Amino acid sequence: MPHADIYSLTPLADEVPSGLPLVMAMTGFADAGTTSGQLIEFIRGDRQSRTVAAFDNDTFLDYRARRPSVLFDQDDFRDYTAPRLELALADDEMGQPFLALIGYEPDLAWEAFTDAVMDLVERFRVSGASWVQGVPMPVPHTRALGVVVTGTRGELVDRLSAWRTTMRVQATPLHRLHGAIRDTGRPVSGFAVLVPHYLAETEYPEALVTAIDGLGAAEGLILPTDTLRDAGRRFVSKVQEQIDGNDELQRLIATLEERYDSELGDATARSPLTDGAGELPSADEIAAELERFLSGRGDEQGGRGLA
Question: Model-level pTM?
Answer without folding.
Answer: 0.85
